[in-house]
Structure to design on (514 residues):
């Protein structure tokens, strides 16, 4: 089973400009043929545009077409109520995401509810004994850059129906919110904002990604410098495992762990086997643990029992399988629901901006910023700034009313007056909280970040602050405007570089990509 970070099936509609996916409308079988003729649907897809230059990959397994031909019949007989399609145009829409890859699925399904997820899992688990090439790959918004939402078998689109957002529960530390995996991050954020809270692991693509996809990829974002990845903010997960049942996965005390492992179901089996794996290989796992806190590659086994196996057996700490499922891209189970923690939105923050016209001093500036425990340090390049200047209409979808015009005024004033119509090679943005600036004034931090030929300054105008943040968040989306007939190929994802080496890294990367 495999998941990742979707679309909805609508008969005879393939409008790629649709803003919001519509629900699947199915052709009803006639009564006379109800036993043999099953519903078929086509898809209106808005998440994964066609990628003409995509890398077509060859399937690893030899495909047995019979299993995929029969899957709709088997799902309907088992009670699956959602949309199912093997239409060529639908499959083509799901063959790409924001990565450079193109893999054609054989079938796309859109579960109507959690029961549908369970049915699909049970059916596929049963039928893989006959048809070994069958698999499930859940997909949400399709914004991932590593191709995790692509499959040459069955894609499970969770966005059209599994997008409900529950109520916010306030806690002493902030809040909790429960939602389904297809809930858009921006909608969850709006609801949390009414309670003065946010999930600090939000990604820069929060306007277009889902909560479920972000957790499945263990995504990180600007504030992850201080607050970590999405996995760090998971309270609990509702997960459909290979037996087709949904289980609540949450951190376990040793007493809870002992009780669970006595059970005879899939969650108990996985828990027993993972614990045995940790116990046997703990030293090797700790030795292999990446030194950088920014890491979303592979299975984070070292985070499941961070206090150590011996300490856990003595009743200290927890055993937390959410840390394994977060980032596993659905290879362990399908996320059917999430409860996330949120914290108060930082107030009275200060943004320090440094425009760099040469890259050699960038490491020095960033190292200086890190000395003051920033909430985040972000960068955008000259191309991004130039595209923002040339495409003001782009921000109309992101800003409302006078905010749009005031933010544009701030952008053009910055370019024409502050920068003298020169576009910096890089613009560094560093945000500091009130506690930090009460100890060290923001102006002093700006002086510390300044380098030869480039002076950092504190931005006080809220519309100028918004302008910088909007440009940074829109970096990837803006890159699509270089050529309307082409789209950028995201052949690089996240890279981790020691801060002291950043200057050399930026110079070499710019040289390589020219």
């Amino acid at each position: 089973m495999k998941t990742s970070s979707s679309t909805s099936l609508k008969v005879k509609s393939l409008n790629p400009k649709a803003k919001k996916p519509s629900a699947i409308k199915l052709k009803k079988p006639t009564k006379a043929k109800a036993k043999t003729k099953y519903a078929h649907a086509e898809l209106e897809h808005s998440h994964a545009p066609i990628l003409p230059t995509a890398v077509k990959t060859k399937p690893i397994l030899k495909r047995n077409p019979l299993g995929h031909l029969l899957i709709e019949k088997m799902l309907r007989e088992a009670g699956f109520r959602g949309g199912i399609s093997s239409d060529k145009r639908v499959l083509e829409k799901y063959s790409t995401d924001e990565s450079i890859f193109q893999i054609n699925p054989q079938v796309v399904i859109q579960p109507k509810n959690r029961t549908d997820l369970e049915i699909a899992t049970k059916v596929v688990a049963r039928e893989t004994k006959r048809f070994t090439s069958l698999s499930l790959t859940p997909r949400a918004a399709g914004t991932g850059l590593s191709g995790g939402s692509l499959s040459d078998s069955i894609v499970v689109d969770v966005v059209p129906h599994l997008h409900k957002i529950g109520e916010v529960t306030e806690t002493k530390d902030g809040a909790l919110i429960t939602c389904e995996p297809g809930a858009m991050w921006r909608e969850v954020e709006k609801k949390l904002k009414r309670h003065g809270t946010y999930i600090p692991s939000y990604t820069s693509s929060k306007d277009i990604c889902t909560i479920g996809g972000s957790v499945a990829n263990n995504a990180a974002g600007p504030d992850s410098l201080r607050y970590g990845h999405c996995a760090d903010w998971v309270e609990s997960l509702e997960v459909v495992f290979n037996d087709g049942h949904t289980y609540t996965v949450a951190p376990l005390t040793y007493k809870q762990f002992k009780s669970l492992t006595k059970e005879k179901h899939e969650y108990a089996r996985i828990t027993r086997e993972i614990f045995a794996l940790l116990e046997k290989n703990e030293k090797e796992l700790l030795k292999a643990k990446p030194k950088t806190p920014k890491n979303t590659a592979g299975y984070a086994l070292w985070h499941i029992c961070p206090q150590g196996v011996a300490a856990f057996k003595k009743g200290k700490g927890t055993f937390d399988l959410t840390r394994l499922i977060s980032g596993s891209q659905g290879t362990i189970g399908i996320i059917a629901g999430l409860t996330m923690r949120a914290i108060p939105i930082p107030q009275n923050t200060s943004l320090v901006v440094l425009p760099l016209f040469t890259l050699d001093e960038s490491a020095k500036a960033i190292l200086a910023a890190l000395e003051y425990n920033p909430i985040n340090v972000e960068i955008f390049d000259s191309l991004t700034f130039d595209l923002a200047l040339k495409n003001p209409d782009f921000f109309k979808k992101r800003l409302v009313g006078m905010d749009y015009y005031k933010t544009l005024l701030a952008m053009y004033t910055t370019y024409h007056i502050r920068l003298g119509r020169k576009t910096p090679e890089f613009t560094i943005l560093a945000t500091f909280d009130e506690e930090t600036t009460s100890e060290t004034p923001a102006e002093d931090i700006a002086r510390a970040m300044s380098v030869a030929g480039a002076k950092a300054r504190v931005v006080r105008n809220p519309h100028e602050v918004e302008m910088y943040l909007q440009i940074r968040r829109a970096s990837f989306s803006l890159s699509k405007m270089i050529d309307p007939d082409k789209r950028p190929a995201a052949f690089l994802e996240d890279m981790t570089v020691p801060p002291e080496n950043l200057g050399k890294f930026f110079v070499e990367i710019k040289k390589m990509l020219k």
